[in-house]
Write a structure and sequence with these properties.
Length: about 425
């Protein structure tokens, strides 16, 4: 009994040894806390002091410095400020196995020294074809001099209906943002796309537009698409495998989200720098939330940007529901574009769209577009920047002039007519509904 009592007494004595340091540290902490409070209340700033209980940490001018998110938001909001300088476009041109020559033809047809270009030939293409594409860019004297054409060295496996296409697009945007700060709109094209206007036409017309307009065809997802696209859960094998295969369908189905609305539309877009910066930085985490949701979504390239922009207060008013493409669809159910041929030429022109898709490789209609719409006789569609001698079949674009001077033609007139319709009050009132 004595032994146990002594043991118990020792533990009590040992606990008491920590009492004095504990209360001393508590007293110091309270003192520092009270000092901080009274320091805030008594600090002089040349005016009346605000009571501590009404200091607000809500989103406001006074509170913006407290959070890193506000700094990120401010960094891309500065780009919304429009200057009336000539615009610049940033193009992503993508392709797969056997598309390298088509990609070069599309690149040359949309080339202008003011713009930026990035080419992505996916992993399905053999290494030799990717090396040949890079060699073609490197050997072009204009590309080497201007240094505005890049070939993505990291090739990704891309499934059109899967999220890997979105991942590739976001990667290209991130590269363009990191390596060059001087562009206003991002445009994605495939090797089967082709322009219907010259870059001088496009740059001239967009010189007079606000830099905050996003051209992205969109509509609320409804009808059969709800059941066949929104509710199934798919897996894109390109995220895990080295060979392309079809989407894998799971047996599970999910309910529709309640915190945001789902939109769908064309995968081909023309997006502002400020909006794609928001998608990359995602200062409020919303773009990443949507990206995770669309990772298992059927035809996610036709919904990701659309859902982000229409659920974001800062950008939904800027969405113009048009993809700036002429596309002929199968009928019904209008899910697959028909290859365009010579018989579609007049319809393409009358659409006033600056781009069209899809075209078969080296189809004769492309030569007709080069001759009658682009005036292309050599490497590039000519523009005011081409000041060389064209006599004797020489390339006038081998000598560069002022790239801020444009020589608009009939393509500019057609595009201007289209934009008058797209920017009308009646058309814009239907956006993101």
């Amino acid at each position: 009994m004595r032994k146990n009592a002594n043991s118990h007494s020792g533990r009590v004595f040992s606990d008491r040894k920590w009492a004095i340091p504990f209360f001393a540290s508590l007293l110091v902490s309270v003192s520092l806390f009270l000092t901080a409070i009274f320091g805030v209340l008594s600090s002089s700033s040349g005016g009346e002091q605000l009571p501590f209980d009404i200091i607000s940490f809500a989103r406001s001018e006074d509170s913006s410095g407290y959070f890193v998110e506000s700094e990120l938001k401010a960094s891309f909001n500065t780009n919304v400020i429009s200057t009336m300088k000539a615009p610049r476009f940033a193009y992503l041109i993508s392709g797969t196995k056997g598309d390298s020559h088509r990609m070069m033809r599309t690149l040359q047809a949309v080339y202008h020294p003011r713009n930026q270009y990035i080419l992505h030939l996916d992993l399905e293409a053999p290494p030799r074809e990717r090396l040949e594409l890079a060699a073609s860019v490197k050997s072009d004297p204009t590309f080497c001099e201007v240094e505005n054409v890049r070939v993505m060295s990291q090739s990704n496996l891309v499934t059109y209906k899967g999220p890997t296409m979105i991942a590739c697009t976001l990667q290209a945007i991130a590269i363009l943002l990191k390596e060059n700060l001087q562009w206003d709109w991002f445009i994605n094209l495939s090797a089967s796309d082709y322009p219907l206007v010259r870059q001088d036409d496009l740059l001239h017309v967009f010189s007079n537009l606000s830099r905050d307009l996003n051209f992205i065809e969109h509509t609320r997802i409804a009808g059969w698409k709800l059941n066949q696209r929104a509710k199934p859960i798919i897996i894109d094998p390109a995220l895990y495998l080295s060979k392309k295969s079809n989407l894998a369908w799971t047996t599970q189905r999910r309910t529709l989200p309640t915190s945001f609305r789902l939109f769908t539309g064309s995968a081909w877009v023309m997006l502002t720098r400020s909006f794609v910066e928001y998608c990359i930085w995602g200062w409020d985490n919303f773009p990443r939330t949507i990206l995770m949701y669309y990772t298992n979504f059927v035809s996610s390239p036709e919904g990701y940007f659309h859902t982000v922009i229409c659920n974001t207060e800062e950008f939904h008013h800027s969405a113009i529901s048009h993809d700036l493409h002429y596309i002929a669809w199968d009928n019904p159910p209008k899910q697959h574009p028909i290859a365009l041929t010579l018989k579609d030429f007049d319809k393409m022109v009358k659409s006033n769209a600056p781009f069209a898709r899809k075209f078969a490789r080296d189809d004769p209609v492309l030569d007709k577009i080069d001759k009658e719409l682009l005036g292309r006789k050599s490497r590039f569609a000519p523009g005011a920047w081409c000041v060389g001698n064209s006599d004797g079949g020489e390339d006038p674009c081998s000598l560069r002039g002022n790239d801020t001077v444009f020589r608009p033609g009939s393509g500019a007139e057609r595009l201007h007519e289209l934009l008058q319709t797209l920017l009308s009050e009646d058309f814009r009132s239907k956006q993101c509904l």
